[in-house]
Amino acid sequence: MGSTVKFVLDGEIIELKDVDPTRTVLQYLREYLRRTGTKEGCAEGDCGACTVVIAELNRDSDGVQLKAINSCIQFLPTLHGKQLITVESLKQKNAGLHPVQRAMVDCHGSQCGFCTPGFVMSLFALYQNNAAPSRVEIDDALAGNLCRCTGYRPIIAAANTMYELPRAGTEPLHEALLAKLEADDALHIEYGTRKFFAPTSGKELAALLTEHPKATLLAGGTDVGLWVTKQHRVLDTVIYTGRVAELRRLSANRTHIEIGAAVTLADAMDVIVEHYPALDELFRRFASPPIRNAGTLGGNIANGSPIGDSMPALMVAGTTLTLMSVDGVREVALDAFYIDYQVKDLKPGEFIALIRIPLPAKNVILHSHKLSKRFDQDISAVCSAYRLELDGQRVASFAMACGGMAATIRRASHCEAALNGQPWNAASIEKAMLALADDFAPISDMRASADYRLRAAQNLLRRFYLETTGELGQSVYRYGR
Asked: Which pTM was predicted?
């Protein structure tokens, strides 16, 4: 078990010992390396000023996978085995600016300049991953970057212009060095009395969790990172799941999509949308690309937030969770996993290992609505999902789940009972809408009042009905994207 964090930066393999387990990549860049191009804005992964790009060798194919992430909430030891690319990395020696940087200059894409390096890095990731993006794809790629000067128009122009400029030297990728870093050994760091473990197998993870029952499980860090940067918690023992081979599995067989708990949201969502295309808008509006590139579907489910956007759709789809511990594995239905607020059906030493989503059956409609004040990067006031199977004009099977309506995400059992076996018509929908009041007693908070939430959930159910009859298109948003 190694104790040295190794990663690639600007053509060199960096080796770090005595690493503070919860020191962020941003802190390392600014305070140790004095790379001040990467900025701290919000320290919670919302503004994008701290965006950097991480490169990893593809696990199942040749080449390198590049992803923009928020360095402000990414812990330094999670760089182990990867390449870090910052805004300073883009300018090649004696080769001038990178086309992304040159396009930002030529198109006057920088005003006060604070957000500019983050935009540049998100554009760099887009430049590497998509040779001809559409306007929608450009907007999506930049959804995690905020400009306080409202200078988006010239930044969009730069996104189009960067492809027209000549490449200035070689790209700052070092695949050969990454290959040298590929190692199967686990990582174990001790920093004073604090510990960081990065096991490589489920068996090791289960043993560590039994040995350290109060340890913090770290996946993408998109929530745990805020415990450190915003709440200033001291995490004594951290166990990182991102190197566990079994938890990084992603496949689809004849009956199910199988997603390891450490698979990123970005990778998981691509496969889910391939089989459930109606969920495309929901997942494009789920957080931002840097958050989806770091966060995991397993972490989102394990977190158990009552406003988590992935769970309602997964719940009505019939998703099950495979839980693992030193005692073996067991399977739990997602709709039975949440017992109360932040109380889950997890025994001591258990962790989520696998998410199994049934493939859609013929003639089944699955859809979800996210209601929030902004299109991008906003927490839902209400998120609802539906699964409908019709037998002619009669409801053979109906399921509905809601987030933002209770202490946990849960099924709307009274509403379901009001529709199952009934005609799929406006009169049945009216009765089902009334039944939602028996399913949920929402609270009022900064995002919405209790009355608004209930009315919204009822009206979104009516909208789903109108979408299935063709009276409305399957998008709440008809402007912009």
From this structure: 0.93
